[in-house]
Amino acid sequence: MERYLITNITEADYGCEEPAADGAHAYLYLRKIDSKTNVNNENEDNQNNENQNPLDIKRMEVSENTISKMKLDTGRMVGINDAGELIKIVRVVAAVIVAKDEDGNDIIFATERGYGEFKGMWEFPGGKIETGETPRKALAREIKEELDVDIEVGDYIDTLEYDYPEFHLSMDCFYCNVKCGEIVLKEASAARWLRSFELRDVNWLPADVTLIEKLNKKFF
Predict the structure, then answer these.
(1) Phi and psi of 94, rounded to 5°?
(2) pLDDT digits 0-9 by tens, 115-126
(3) Up-side HSE of residue 148: CA atoms within 13 Å toward CB?
(4) Which domain holds residue 35?
(5) How far is CA 22 from each of CA 19, 26, 63, 207, 218, rounded to the nearest angstrom?
(6) What's the pTM value of the predicted model, to 2 decimals?
(7) Are residues 51 and 7 in contact, defined by beta-carbon separation less than 8 angstroms?
(8) Within its chain, how far is the Cα of 91 from the centroid?
(9) Residues 95 and 25 in one domain
(10) Same domain, yes or no: 27 and 94
């Protein structure tokens, strides 16, 4: 799947009251990007495109229903699969918060989702990257909102990819530690500090399972 940043959206039938025969109502202007654009860059993801070579911009005709359903807007990332179909990409960040237990062993913080379709399943805390936000800034903001603590965002681990039925998830993962504050669960229904041999004791969200394998190989 190729990834693109939406640089502009215009009406395909601007000035015409009747819809196009094929139902298309708008054009997406797309700039091809790398799958890990700005993961470790403090610059904004939604960069100024004034000097962008027009030949590097792809134009795609879509329906207004598609724009509404997928909540597309400028600055958003989308994918195009081998069949030429538009895929919604949801970019999120996840914090692998590391600490030490009383015996000096490494432990990792996990939370149980308290809402939605995956209520009761476990995940690494984090959330969505907003338009114009870097992954590191998004992660610090999300953890403050979810756990009421300030964190230090450390080394980048990996970007994990997972296909859910309605969208493709792209999750940037970072090691973190708590700088100040006491953890307060504002959204999760429960939380645990897990040692290496306890990582399989909880029912993880599908996208987080791959990260468990990486932690066992690279961290513990």
Answers:
(1) -135, 140
(2) 888 899 999 999
(3) 8
(4) 2-89
(5) 8, 12, 9, 36, 51
(6) 0.80
(7) no
(8) 2
(9) no
(10) no
